[in-house]
Amino acid sequence: MPDSDICSINLIDEAKVTAVKKAMQPEEVLFRLAETFRVLGDPTRVRILHALSLEELCVCDIARLLGTTKSAVSHQLRLLRSLRVVKYRKDGRIVYYSLDDSHVANLLCEGLNHIITTTLPGASP
Amino acid sequence: MPDSDICSINLIDEAKVTAVKKAMQPEEVLFRLAETFRVLGDPTRVRILHALSLEELCVCDIARLLGTTKSAVSHQLRLLRSLRVVKYRKDGRIVYYSLDDSHVANLLCEGLNHIITTTLPGASP
DNA sequence: TTAACAGTTGAATAATTGCTCAACTATAGA
DNA sequence: TCTATAGTTGAGCAATTATTCAACTGTTAA
C-alpha cells in the first residue's frame, strides 16, 4: 500500500469522519449483513429460495424447476442449510426442503417488490 | 451432465412443479433480484453504503473510515456508480459521493434491522 | 436379494472478483 | 510554473466460488 494511497497526513474532514465512524454499526454487524445479502446474491440460490417461498419442494423437483442438476442444487442447499436459511424433512428417500428463516423471506419479498415496481412501465422514480 | 443426475424420467410431483413454475417470477426479474443482493453482499461495499447512508463523503474520507486504500474504494465506487446505487458531485478536486437509490437504502435498513434484532440477547426467534 | 433412484459429497475445473500496484489526470496553492 | 494531492484506471494476482463429474449412501419395490 503506497503512502500516497492512504490519505494519512491530510484527510478532508476529520470531524466528519470521526462522527460517522461513531454513528456506524459495529464491524461485526456489517459483516453479518454482507453475509446475509451474499446468500441472496446468486441467481441459482435466489431462484431456489423464491420457489421454496411458494411451496415445499424436494431436490429433484427443484432441479427440474431450474433446469439444472440435482448435484448443483444439493450443493447450494447444503450452504443454505448451514446458514439456517432452509430446513428439510425426510419422507422415505425423498427430502423436502422449505424456508426456515422468515427474515430472509421478508428480504426476498422486499427486494422483489422493489425490482417489480422499478421495472413497471410507469413506475415512480 | 449424467442422465442419472437430471430426473428426466420420473419426477416426484409434476403437477406441483408445473404450478410453481407458473407462479414464479420471470427469469429476468429473479436475475436482477440476485444482482441487487450481490451488490450488497460484500463487506467493503456494505460498509461504504452504510457510511453514505449517514453522510455524504469524499473518497479519501471513506478510505480513512474503512482503513483501506483510495484505490480499493474507488474501484468499488465505480461499480456502485455503474449500477446507479451512488451518485457524486465534484467540488474542485474533491469528489463527494452519496446514495442514489432509495430502494437499496431501504433494503440496507431492512437488513440491518433483521441482523440487529436477531442478534439481541432476548430476541424472539 | 437386487435393481433403481433420491440425494449427498469431495475433488477438480473454470469463472468471477476484490485488492494491490503503478501510472495517470486534474485541480489547488505556493 | 511547479509541486502536492484527490481521484481514476488498467493490469496482474490471489482468493473465492459455482458447477461438473464420479463415486457413494440409503431407501423403495420387484
Explain the overall architecture.
2 copies of one chain form a homodimer. Chain A is mainly α and 125 residues long. Chain A has one domain (23-117): Winged helix-like DNA-binding domain superfamily/Winged helix DNA-binding domain (Arc Repressor Mutant, subunit A, Orthogonal Bundle), CATH 1.10.10.10. In chain A, β2 and β3 form a beta hairpin. In chain A, 60% of the residues lie in helices and 11% in strands. Chain A starts with 13 loop residues before the first helix and ends in a 6-residue tail after the last helix. In chain A, α4 packs across α5 (70-82). The model of chain A has no long low-confidence stretch (mean pLDDT 89). In chain A, strands 1-3-2 form a 3-stranded antiparallel sheet. The first copy, chain A, has helices at residues 14-23, 27-40, 43-54, 59-66, 70-82, 102-119; strands spanning 57-58, 86-91, 94-99. Chain A is built from 6 helices and 3 strands; from the N terminus they run αααβααββα. Chain A binds a DNA duplex (30 and 30 nucleotides) through residues 1-2, 4-5, 7, 9-10, 12, 42, 44, 58-60, 68-78, 92-95.
- Summarize the amount of helix of chain A as a percent range: 55-70%
Helix segment count of chain A? 6
Low-confidence stretches of chain A: none
Q: Assign an overall shape of chain A.
A: elongated
Strand percentage of chain A lies at 5-15%
Mean pLDDT of chain A: 89
H and E order of chain A = HHHEHHEEH
Number of strands of chain A: 3
Largest interface: A-B, 61 and 61 residues
CATH level 1 name of chain A: Mainly Alpha
Features:
homodimer, 125 residues, mainly alpha, Arc Repressor Mutant, subunit A, DNA-binding
